[in-house]
Design goal:
This protein is α+β, with helices and mostly antiparallel strands. The chain contains two helices and three strands; from the N terminus they run H-E-E-H-E. The model has no long low-confidence stretch (mean pLDDT about 90).
Length: about 90
């Protein structure tokens, strides 16, 4: 299973997002720190979820990191998050 698939499964289970877009942006980081052949190192994730209602930006980021867990987070070099309510 790809890391993007793992991200999707974990975020759907934890946050029930109305919108979830995951983009592997690794290739645009070729030559930079953390890049590995084959990608799966740099991701842009856009989530719209009711679970974010009333939460600060930091709380939303913590929710996502908590949902993904330290094992998966540890295998990703960069994770850009765009988090909001629907």
């Amino acid at each position: 299973m790809s890391k993007a698939d793992e991200i999707r499964l974990k975020l759907e289970a934890a946050l029930a997002p109305s919108e979830l877009d995951i983009v592997d942006d690794s290739e645009s980081h070729r030559g930079h720190g953390g890049f590995q052949e084959g990608g799966e190192t740099h991701y842009n994730v856009r989530i719209r979820a009711d679970a974010f209602t009333g939460k600060s930006r930091i709380q939303r980021h913590r929710m996502v990191h908590g949902a993904l867990g330290p094992e998966l987070i540890g295998r990703i070099h960069a994770l850009a998050l765009d988090l909001d309510v629907p």
